[in-house]
Write a structure and sequence with these properties.
Blueprint (H helix, E strand, L loop, with lengths): L1 E5 L13 H8 L4 E5 L13 E2 L9 E2 L1 H9 L7 E12 L2 H10 L2 E6 L15 E4 L9 H12 L10 H4 L18 E2 L2 E2 L9 H19 L1 H15 L1
Parallel strand pairs: 1-2, 1-6, 5-6, 5-7
Antiparallel strand pairs: 3-4, 8-9
Helix pairs in contact: 3-4, 6-7
Length: about 230
């Protein structure tokens, strides 16, 4: 997969793209990330990419010309999506990551900045994505989160594919509790069922824990999961 990032701050990605499984995946060319700075496409000698908003207001707004030129400079693959990272976008979910990882060869990510982007820049995007209902200083943070979430789903990034199938949100539920040695730590003991060797009982316990944890911590997710299961049983 090709991932092109339109960013005013390419250095922001230096550490994140070189660390952990993401760094290994990029080194193994499971995906390629190309950073494009819209300042290189600015029309004036000072390479300005922002200006004051029409109608007045606080802050600066990203200009359309450099952004359009930056996106136009990127060679396109047949199956691609242009994504604007914006607090006005749809919340990023595991289903979104699965869709992007499965159905597209190329992602072009536009990182917003300052007080926002000129409204015409939104016409470049096929969709807008947000990390949630809060404001960050830049679009690079959600862009890196999206890159990480997508690349880890690509074949070859995670050693054991099974680990992707039994984690939070994959079945609409949160993940079950995990334990490792020692069996007892500061009076907290690993549940006996996990040490029983009975894989059927372990699977049953884990599913029960997923349901219980989701119901307690994310009743909204549990309600959706319960409704889907009810419809499937009809």
């Amino acid at each position: 997969m090709n991932i092109d990032v339109i960013t005013l701050f390419p250095d922001f990605f230096t550490s994140g793209l070189q660390s952990g499984l993401l760094g290994k995946a990029l080194a193994n060319e499971i995906a390629q990330v190309n950073l494009v700075n819209p300042r290189d496409f600015a029309l004036d000698k000072h390479h300005r990419v922002d200006d004051i908003p029409y109608g007045g207001g606080v802050g600066m707004v990203l200009k359309p010309e450099p952004m359009f030129a930056a996106v136009a400079s990127i060679p396109r693959l047949p199956k691609g999506q242009v994504i604007l990272l914006s607090p006005q976008g749809s919340p990023l979910t595991q289903n979104t990551l699965q869709d992007l990882a499965t159905n597209y060869q190329q992602l072009i990510l536009i990182c917003g900045h300052y007080e926002g982007v000129d409204e015409r820049i939104r016409y470049l995007a096929d969709r807008e994505i947000s990390l949630g209902d809060f404001i960050l200083t830049c679009g690079e943070i959600p862009a890196l989160a999206l890159i990480n979430g997508v690349v880890r789903l690509l074949p070859g990034t995670v050693g054991k594919v099974e680990s992707l199938k039994a984690e939070s949100f994959e079945d609409g539920l949160l993940d079950y509790p995990q334990y490792t040695r020692p069996a007892v730590f500061q009076d907290w003991e690993v549940p006996a069922v996990l040490r029983s060797g009975n894989h059927q009982l372990i699977a049953q316990w884990r599913k029960e824990q997923q349901i219980k944890r989701t119901q307690q911590r994310r009743p909204d997710l549990w309600q959706k999961w319960a409704e889907i299961r009810s419809q499937e049983s009809e």
